[in-house]
Amino acid sequence: MRENLNYRPLKMKDEVESKGITRPTDKLHAETAELIVEIMNAATSFHKLHLSVTGNGSYAQHIALNDLYDALPGLADTIAEGMQGACEVILKYPDKAPVTLTGIDGAIQYIRNMIEEINELQSIMPYSEIVNNLDLIKDAFNTAKYKLIFLS
């Protein structure tokens, strides 16, 4: 297997070691896997809330939440596959239950928290393509937040 390649420095032909480029650490892998699971679980949480909104403005909330829970699984999959390809390692995904959202205000706060978690991961992510894909998730969250705050 390739397990002996997981954390060795990258080498160029006829070069002892490439300019300080090394493989990411277990901590980065764990934090990425944890965020991926949280994004997958967020889709479930937003879907459940989507099915329970009622009252004034609920149609706009219903649609905003629908758009978000539709987008998140594919975006999470893109991050997972991209990271595993970049690192050449299969991430270990923790078992974690989805959060229960008690209303639109809770959903908006959860979106804010998720954006903060994504920002933290981006600050330590060595792969620009993963950083860019994480931006797409923040864009989906920000679009939903806009709709939930101003259109419902």
Topology:
Elements: H1 26-50, H2 58-87, H3 104-124, H4 128-150
Helix pairs in contact: 1-2, 1-3, 2-4, 3-4
CATH class: Mainly Alpha
List segments where confidence is low: pLDDT < 50 over at least 5 consecutive residues: 1-18
> Gyration radius, to the nearest Å?
18 Å
| End-to-end separation | 53 Å
Tell me the β content: under 5%
Q: What structural category arises from helix and sheet content?
A: mainly alpha
Structural description of this entry:
It is a single chain. With 152 residues, the protein is mainly α. It has a single domain (25-150), classed as Up-down Bundle (Ferritin). The protein has four helices and no strands. It has helices spanning 26-50, 58-87, 104-124, 128-150. The longest helix is centred in the middle third of the chain and has 30 residues, at 58-87. It starts with 25 loop residues before the first helix and ends with a helix.
Give a brief description.
With 152 residues, this protein is mostly helical. It is built from four helices and no strands. It has a single domain (25-150), classed as Up-down Bundle (Ferritin).
